[in-house]
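cron nightly-structures :: item 1 of 1
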Amino acid sequence: MIKTDILIIGAGPTGLFTVFEAGLLKLKCHLIDALPQPGGQCSELYPKKPIYDIPGFPEILAGDLTSNLLEQGKQFQPGFTLGERAETIEKQDDGSFIVTTNKGTQHHAPIIAIAGGLGSFEPRKPKLEGIEGYEDKGVAYFIKDPEVYRNKKVVIAGGGDSALDWSIFLADVASEVTLVHRRNEFRGALDSVERVQELKLINKINLITPAEITALHGENQIEGVAVTKDVETQVLEADAFIPLFGLSPKLGPIGSWGLEIERNAIKVDTLDYQTNIPGIYAIGDVNTYEGKLKLILCGFHEATLMCQSAYKLLNPGKKFVLKYTTVSGINGFDGTRKESPKAVVKAIV
């Protein structure tokens, strides 16, 4: 049985940052994730997608963000159980929990932090005849490696951040990028919408709105995409069709753990992001509360407050004084002197 101070369910960005924040408080973490590698969606779905709203990084690839978070947390030596899904939870007489995975691995911890992102997820697929036959033959629902589309004609459908961001990114990779959306208005960030409009003006992106993809063409590979605008339909030559309509999230087994659920997300108290079960927290996209924003940086904030609360639960009566991470020239957390002082935090307990 694996024992730890905080058991983190989900090894996406929020879960990985929790390792760092907990480590500053000298709390040990272990992470469970159904995916075979850390990083969550950032690693599995779009490692080469640029992210623009991480503080201090005007632009960073999702895969690089994962690598940085792993590097930041490795000094605290977290444990990982990867390729296994958290299946059941049992509360013990002392208030701690035993979580068992679908492969029978048991984990024992007094604190549970659910950081499962969207939970288990599937892409929302457009209802187009024969689309399954084109999957991996020009049709893709995620972009893992944009170089696949180098010098190709790409049609993207969607109106959210992913559709906008990838259209912008691929404008410098593909020979031709067409973005199709059923409305004139987009759901993505205003800066991204403005950038797409700018690229349209210089013929770097072909923008068609309001319109819909109504058919796919090609023998053994995508060769064309039918686009209907008003009552007229045109067939665009295409090497790839990428519908980016988001993900259909499912909580999976976690939904049966007795947690308060609202709209497929876990309700929490914004004081510390604790659920209705004492000792179980939910942070990141998996939780919900009034004013919730599903942003990575919000998950980082939630993880920070959650760790402070967890420390108090685990150390009742102990005084905690937080010093800022600008303290430099002090010993490393492993007790060794750093050759070059780094920005670190020192917890005085």
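cron nightly-structures :: done
Confidence is low (pLDDT under 50) at residues 328-349.
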